[in-house]
Amino acid sequence: MRLLTDHLAFGLQFVAAAQLGIALLNLFVPRILHWKEDLTRLPLLLREVFQVHVWFISMTLVIFAVMTWRFAGEMAFGTNEVSRWLAAGIGLFWALRTVLQVTYYSSSHWRGRPGRTLAHITLLLLYGGFACCYLWAAFPRTGGAA
Amino acid sequence: MLTTHLVTLLQVAGLLHLGLVWAGASMPRAVNLGAHLATLPEFIRRLVWVYYTFIGFCLIGFGSFTFFFADTLASGVPLARAVCGFLCGFWTIRFLVAAFVFDLRPYLTTPWRRAGYHTMNMVFALLPLIYAAAALKGVHL
Hints:
By secondary structure, chain A is mainly alpha-helical. Chain A has one domain (2-138). Chain A has helices spanning 2-32, 36-39, 44-70, 72-77, 81-103, 114-138. In chain A, helix 1 (2-32) packs antiparallel against helix 3 (44-70), helix 1 (2-32) packs antiparallel against helix 6 and helix 5 (81-103) runs antiparallel to helix 6. The longest helix of chain A has 31 residues, at 2-32. The two termini of chain A are 12 Å apart. Chain B is an all-alpha fold. Chain B has one domain (3-135). Chain B has six helices and no strands. In chain B, helix 5 (78-100) packs antiparallel against helix 6. Chain B is elongated and about 55 Å long. The A-B interface holds A 35, 38-39, 41-46, 48-50, 52-57, 59-60, 63, 66-67, 70-71, 74, 80-83, 85-86, 89, 92-93, 96-97, 100, 104-106, 109 and B 27, 31, 33, 36-37, 39-44, 46, 48-52, 54-55, 57-58, 61, 65, 68-69, 72-73, 77-80, 82-83, 86-87, 89-90, 93-94, 97, 101-104, 106-107.
């Protein structure tokens, strides 16, 4: 069990690094996908709201990433209730994101386009992996300090 | 500051998050968001709603966490201080955005909207102070 927990701590640090990457990438999504022209159709306030939402999603991911990196050991060992609830909250965040990837976004965005299909599957596995990692850390395990 | 006062302040901060969720939930109708988004391609439209929903979930999560773990967050242990430090940063930036980015004047057409706008700004100013107090607990400046 100790070995599994050590792996979980390493896994959480990997997840933290990946989240930092997604946070950074998220800031450039409108530019990468050439949305500037489409977004100019929105009134100024809504354009600003969209941009602020992009910043705050990235900021939230940075918070999750730094907290996870710094406290990976505490989360993995479930040494206190706060770290477990924090892991549960972030795990739910990613579980919901995984479900939305399948149920909310139309498959017409990626079906028949190999590059987009690959991106869709990669994101699905990534988000699902994040959720599993955090939810595993969230639940009390026998053999750990919890 | 006494720990009991800090716990109470953190619980108030937790409840204020729910007020912000309620204000955020009324935003689409106030600015006629659905009609404006209808002009966008489907993928961007859906992404906007996903961002909007996740910001809402984050606020519910931050608020619930703060309310139910107020005593732990006020304890000054490293994890609690880190959480409070980050939430202080989050709400400081949100306050700056409210002050310097958004121009809501065209939408403040009724006394209720004006009152809601000023109340929200006060909450944005208050939350960083509460979290800063918890993050700096026990630190002698």
